[in-house]
Design goal:
106 residues; alpha+beta; Translation Initiation Factor IF3; 4-stranded mixed beta sheet; 4 strands
């Protein structure tokens, strides 16, 4: 599956647009990681615990979006974007979405 953030894929022709596809996940923070991240925030630097959590969430959302596209018969997804939203104190949703398409070589 080819994924791009652009509306086109170089050297490929979109022969059919299949529709919107999406994948999401909602994750809650872990109290132990919050404590470590809080201590790190005092001295400065990257919050590795949250970076890892976001990376895992992003990959899961992408995997779910690809599954959605495969069910439609797509071989690519164009205009891929991500969005996040706070669901409740300590949890957030990450969503990946794009347009499922059928492509072929020019």
């Amino acid at each position: 599956m080819i994924l791009v953030s652009s509306p086109n894929i170089p050297e490929k022709k979109i022969v059919k647009t299949l529709g919107l596809v999406k994948g999401n996940t909602i994750r809650a923070r872990h109290i132990g990681k919050d404590i470590i991240a809080g201590l790190r925030a005092v001295v400065g630097g990257e919050l590795h615990e949250y970076t890892q959590l976001l990376a895992q969430s992003r990959e899961q959302a992408i995997d779910r979006m690809i599954e959605d596209a495969e069910k439609m018969g797509a071989n690519a997804i164009v205009s891929v974007s991500f969005t996040t939203s706070v669901m409740s104190q300590g949890s957030a949703e990450l969503m990946a979405f794009g347009t499922a398409v059928l492509i072929e070589d020019h």
